[in-house]
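Final report, results section. Input specification for complex C-07:
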Amino acid sequence: MHIPDGFIDGTTSAFGGGVAVGTVAGCLRRTRDLLDDRQVPLVGLTSAFVFAAQMLNFPVAAGTSGHLLGGVLAAVLVGPWAGALAVSVVLVVQALLFADGGLSALGLNVVNMALVGALGGYAVFAAIRALLPKTKASVVAAAGVAAALAPTMAAIVFTAEYALGGNGAASVATVAKAMIGVHLLIGVGEGAITAMTISAVMATRPDLVHGAAHIATRAPSRDDTAGVPA
Amino acid sequence: MNNAHGTGLYMDHTGRLHRLAAHSKLVGTLGFVAAVVATPREQWWSFVADGVIVAMVAVLAGLPLGLLARRLTIELPFIAFALLMPFVGNGPTVRLAGVNLSQAGLWSAWSIVAKGTLGVAATVVLASTTAVPQLITGFERLRVPRALTAIGAFMIRYLDVVTGELQRMRVARESRGDRARWLWQAKAVGAGAGALFVRSYERGERVFLAMESRGYTGTLPSVRRGDEPRHWAACLAPAALASACAIAAWRFR
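Structure output:
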C-alpha cells in the first residue's frame, strides 16, 4: 500500500521529496557508469517486471494474502542502483497513471520503497552474504533474509515519518506496533518468494544475478532457458 | 489496463483538457495537490471548494462524473484505515450512537479522507486526459533527466507484454491444479517469477540490440512543441484557486 495525499503533512512530504530526488539522482549517476546506454531498456524492463511481480499474491496466513514488494528482489537481480531506480520509476508510474499513492507523498513512497526497501535491503543482503561462504546457497539465503527484513525496515521508516508529520490521532506507539507487526508477517512471504525467485534465476541464468557476480559462473548457452517452467 | 498500450486510466477522446500541454498540466496538478495538503483540516468549507474545483475541471474535460467516482475506489483501503482512527485515537472523546469516539481521531479520519480523495481525484483527471507519450514529453520539458523519462517510457511500453506473460503463466499453472494458497506452495510462485525475470531481461537485451542496430546512442528523440502561455494560465488556474482557499482557511482559522 502506498501513502496517499494528506496522510503525512506538507513539510515532511516536501522533505521526503528532496531526499527522493537525491536518491534517484545518485542512482542515475551510478548506473550510468555501470551499464552505459544499455541501462535504459534493461532498467525499463526491470521496472515492468517489478510492476508485474507486485501483482503476484502470496498467502500470508490462512485466507489473507499480501503482494510482493520486490525491492530486494530487483536489487539482487540487477544491482542496488539499477534496482532502486526501477522501483522509483514503478512508483512514479503507479502514482501518475493509476492514481496509486499520492502525488505529494511520492517522495516519501520513494524513500520507503526504493531508498530503504531496495538500497537498504541490498545493504543487509551484502552484509549477510559477506558472513556466509561463497556459494549459490548463501546468495539465496542472504536474499531471502534481507527481503524478509526489508518490509519491516520500511515500516520503521514510515513510523518515523508518521512521528514527524503524521496526520493521524493514533499514538506513534500504536502505529509502530500495527505497522511493524503486519510487515513482519508480509516479510515471511516476501523472503520466501524472493529466495525462490533468485534460486530459479540462478538455476537457468546465473550470469543475470548481480548479487552472485562474486561467484564464478558460466554463461550458459541459450538452450538452458528452455527448461524454465511455463 | 484498458488497451494494448498500457495507458492506465487514459480516456481517448478530444476534450478541452486533452489538448493542453502536458508539462503545464503536471505542474498544475502538483500545485493543486500541494495546496490541498497544506490546508488546515478544521476549515471544512475549503475542502468543499476544492472538491467543486476538481468536479468543474472534470466536467470541462468531458469526463463522466460516474467514471471519476468509480476510479476513486482505488483509495478504499486507506478509507478503511482512516475509519479506524476514531477508535484508536487518544485524548477527549465524544459519544456517538453509544460508542466513545476520539475527537482527534474523528478529525484525522476526516482529514485523511478529504485530502486523500481530492488528491486521487486530481490525479485521475490528469491521468484520464493526458496520453502517456504526452506525459513523458511533459517530464522532459520539465528538465527531468532523459535517462529517467526513457526508462519510464520503456517500462510503460512493455508493461502489458510482461503482465500478459505473467497472466499466461498463472493460467498455465492453475489449470494444472496448482493454486498458491499456502506458504509451502510459494515455490511455484517463485519459479514463475524467476522465469518471468529471465524472459523480461532477455527481451530487454533483444530490444537493446535492435535499437542499437538502428543507431540508438543513449537518448530517444523527443517531439518539442512551442510553449503556450494560454495553456499555463488554464492549467494553473485550479491550483491558484485551491491556494487561495488554503490561504483563506489559514487566515480565518
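DSSP finds seven helices and two strands in chain A. Chain A touches chain B through 80 residues (CB under 8 Å). This concludes the modelling results for the funded period.
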